[in-house]
Structures are given as C-alpha cells and as structure tokens.
Design goal:
By secondary structure, this protein is an alpha/beta fold. The protein has helices at 9-26, 41-52, 80-87, 109-122, 159-164, 185-189, 204-212; strands at residues 2-6, 31-34, 62-65, 67-69, 99-100, 128-131, 153-156, 179-182, 193-198, 230-235. It is globular. The two termini are 18 Å apart. The structure holds 2-amino-2-deoxy-6-O-phosphono-alpha-D-glucopyranose (GLP). 2-amino-2-deoxy-6-O-phosphono-alpha-D-glucopyranose binds at residues 35-39, 66-67, 132-134, 140-141, 161, 164-165.
Length: 244
Amino acid sequence: MTIEVFDTADDVARAVAARVADALAARPSLVLGLPTGRTPIATYAELRRLHGAGRADFSRASTFNLDEFAGVAASHPGSFRTFMNTHLFESVNVAPDRIHFLNGTAPDLDAECARFEAEIGDAGGLDLQILGIGGNGHIGFNEPGEELVAATHRVTLADSTRRDNAALFGGNPAQVPREALSMGMGTILKAATILLIATGERKAHCIERTVRGPVTTRLPASFLQLHPRAEFYLDRAAASRLRT
Ligand code: GLP
C-alpha cells in the first residue's frame, strides 16, 4: 500500500477528488465504488466543485455504493442513498441508470445481495473503490469477527457501528437498523485500485493497526495490506501513530 499524509482533512479531500477526476479523464467509463460516512463528505464537496468547473465529467461513469441499511427505503432520510443524492448525485452528471445501490427493502435480501454482486460483474468490476474506515476497523459494513464473508451479504451491525451511524437516525442509536447489506471484503479487494480516506485523531489507532498489524478478520481493514494497489490518504491526525 502507499500512504500519503496531508496537513488537513481538506487537503486530503482535494487530493482524493483530484485523483478521481484524473481517473475519470483517463477512463470516462470508470466504474466507481463509493462510501458513505462523515469522512468522504469533504471529498464529495470537492468533486461537486470540480464538476462545476468542468473538471470532473461523470456522464459515462457507473457507481456502486458499498452498503445500505436493511429495512430502510431509498427515500428514507437516513438511507445511504439519500446521503449520496445529497452529497454527490444531485450535483454531478452521473446517469441515473448507472447509479447502482443495494435495496434495503427488497423482499429477499439474500437475492438482492446476489443481484448486486452480479451487477458489479456485468459492469466489468470496480475500477476505483473509495473507502472510509469505521472506528473498529470495519470496511463498508464488514464488521470485525471470527470470519468474513467474501461476497455481498447481509450483516448484523456492531453496537459501536450503530452508535457511529446514529446521526442519520435522529441521533438515536436504537433507531439505527440492526442489519445492513454490504459488499464483502472479496468484492472490495477485487477492485483494480482502492483509495482509503481516514481523517481525525479518532481513526489513528485503527489506522496504525491496519497498516502495521497482522492481517486478521478482527480488523477487516487489515486485508487491504494484501491489495496490490491500495492508496491511503490520511491527515496528520489519522497518521499520528504511524510516526516512529
Ligand atoms: C459507516 C459506513 C462505512 C464508513 C464508516 C465510517 O459505517 N458503512 O463505509 O467507512 O461509516 O464513518 P465515518 O467516516 O463517519 O467515520
């Protein structure tokens, strides 16, 4: 993996957005994997700015989002789909039929996961997967545990993850669904290139373990050590425990 450290979170956002804009310029039909969470908000703002300035054209790109809450409709204010509409899709020129999302209200959630995994394959696989990282080292909604599921699957959310996502549900962790659908670590690791964004002191410990620790299902992000093209974009705070 390569690690780039920037002074501020805004510098990280500018670097990642420029990286994505360059990838779109080099390959207009780019297949992008996208995350939610607080971390990518600044990157999406910068991508909107670059799009407005004519420097990021999504007209031929496809997008696949990492995950969605089970039982939450796309139109729900707490859904990841609503988050993406607000922060990116409504302000750039991605074709609506090339936006791919897991449907948390599908009647058969296992079949929905299989459908989504197949759609990624039909698109030729992910060219560029952007990731955040959960405070417990989760990626997408692949939670720490005894084992990981490789393909897109249903997940039971950790209590800490439900607390982390409470802001989307009126600040009340009890309102956060107990289940979600997520790309698997195998789905993610098949992306040609991975860009991981981490900012803030809160991520410093799990970034240290992700970069320096053993590869373990107890820290799903540690599997990124096995990827040939994983690029980490960190601010000084998130990288603070990497210095010797
Ligand atoms: C959620 C998402 C993850 C994201 C994580 C971190 O759990 N499913 O994809 O990386 O939040 O969120 P934040 O960036 O707010 O710390």
